[in-house]
Amino acid sequence: MIDFENKSLFKLKQNAGFAEKVAPLLLDGEEVLDSFKSMRDGVVFTSKRIIAVNVQGITGSKKDFTSLPYKNIVAYSVETSGTFDIDSELELYFSSLGKVRFEFSGKSRLVDIAHYIARYAL
Q1: Distance (Å, rounded) from C-alpha 105 to C-alpha 10?
Q2: Most buried one in 9, 73, 76, 79, CB count within 10 A?
C-alpha cells in the first residue's frame, strides 16, 4: 500500500489515458469518472472508489494499486485554485487509514470531484 504520510506526490494533471492502467481492476458497473497523472504515478476516480497508482522501478512495469472506497471517507477538504495560485488540493480522511492528500496542477475539475465524493460518500 502507498504510504500517504511519507509519499511525496507530484502535482497531478488531468489525463484521460491514465484510466487504462486500472481498467482490469474495475468491478461490473464501475465507471471511471476522471483520471489524473503526475510524472509516473496517478489517481483514478471511479463511481465506487479512488484508485491511487504508484509506478515503481526503473522500467515502470511494477505498480502498486491502492483502492480507497468512498464509503470509508469520514471527512474531506477541497482547496480550489485562485487567480495567481493555480494549484488545488484535495484532502480526504479515511476511517482506518487517516489523511490522504492529492495536489492538482493547472485547471482541474476539483469541484466536480468533490461532487463525486459527496454523492458516493454521504
Answers
A1: 9
A2: 73
Strand order in the sheet with 73-79: 73-79, 88-94, 98-104
Fill in the amino acid letter for 11: K
Q: What burial class does residue 72 get, using C-beta atoms within 10 Å of its C-beta: 0-12 exposed, 13-18 middle, 19+ buried?
A: middle
Q: How far apart are CA 17 and CA 14, in angstroms?
A: 9
Task: Tell me how far apart the alpha carbons of residues 122 and 120 are, in angstroms, rounded to a whole number.
Answer: 6
| Domains defined for the chain, CATH in brackets | 13-121 (2.30.29.50)
Cell of 32: 471511471
Q: Tell me if residue 7 falls in helix, strand or coil.
A: coil
Predicted pLDDT of residue 5: 64
Whole-model pTM: value is: 0.87
* pLDDT at residue 91, as a whole number: 92
Residue 2, all three cell numbers: 502507498
pLDDT(9) > 60: no
Q: In the chain, where does DSSP find H-type helix?
A: 110-121
